[in-house]
Amino acid sequence: MARITIIGGTGYAGSHLVAAAVARGHRVTSYSRRTPSSPPAGAKFIAFDLLDGGQLPRAALDTDVLISALSPRGPLAGQTRQLLADLAERARAEGVRFGVIGGAGTLRISENGPVVQDTEHVPAEFKAEAREMGAVLGDLRESDQALDWFYVSPAAGFGSWAPGAATGTYRIGSDVLLTDSEGNSEISGADLADAVMNEIESPRHRRARFSIAY
User: Fold this and answer.
1) What residues make up the domain containing 8?
2) Which residues of 175-209 are buried (b: 16+ CB within 10 A; e: fewer)?
């Protein structure tokens, strides 16, 4: 059993992570601006807003893995990079593994092709979000070697608008966008969470990014 703290455990990605972690018998604590009206059994939810100026409570670092499921949109736009840099430094100081659920924007279309965020596949209104998460990945890659981190790039079609279902069958990649035979890049919330739990239980990507898609 691992102790897992999830920042943003009530959002789309975060709620799937909480559910998967509980199902596997891990001890899960979620910090988010609001707590769910009907929290799932087996997880602890704590209301906390990182934008209020206070530091995440010390108890949040009493964990094996700290995962951010934050997205740089709404009030977090332009703020997420620094917030995650601060969390990464605290994780390093406490010897806690740090995971980030990012996006597909920094994946390459092909081995030597452009990154997704620089193509027409990303609408203009989402480019700033993609670039901020790309900067987070860059910061992690340049971080102190003592920080044990991983960064997850879901498929390009990952999101609440395409929830999909749990299949337990998917592919793990690295820096190139994974697509199926028809050129689609998709992954369900449940399967993304399954892959993240596998990484927590049997680490294969230390100080590295990995991608997930069908």
Assistant:
1) 3-213
2) eebbbeeeeebbbbbbbbbbbbbebbeeeeeeeeb
